[in-house]
Amino acid sequence: MAVSQTAMFEAVETVSPSRSDRLARLDALANLMDSALLVPGTRIRIGLDSVIGLVPGIGDLASALISSYIIWEARQLGLPRWKIARMAANVALDTTVGAIPVVGDVLDVFYKSNRRNLKILRDHLAREGRNRVGGDEVIEADYTVVRRGR
Fold this sequence. Notes:
Blueprint: H1 5-15, H2 19-35, E1 37-38, E2 45-46, H3 48-52, H4 58-76, H5 81-98, H6 103-110, H7 113-131
Antiparallel strand pairs: 1-2
């Protein structure tokens, strides 16, 4: 029983998450990594990036791997290469400076690379949505012509 490639790709598209589902997942990940925890007695929010970054060497590498997932999803959503490069530069800066003891820990508190990357993604999708008819989803119409008999 052979299934045509077109039918297979259509089936994959119907089960793949929608753009809004992807954005919600990326937003949750960015919040978890950059601002999930409130430092008691302050208004400062930190995320797992700051906590994981306390482990020398391995922590910053693990944070970079998690952050690269946001970049990968952004590419899947159609971001141009120059915006992907900006996102990668945000993660590279966070990772390299984050590897420096004390200075990197302070940077992790104030430089939210995942939130910045999500903003780049959202801004791009908002601009793209304004330029397309129908915004996020493709609009299809089925026109039926009814003739009246005389």
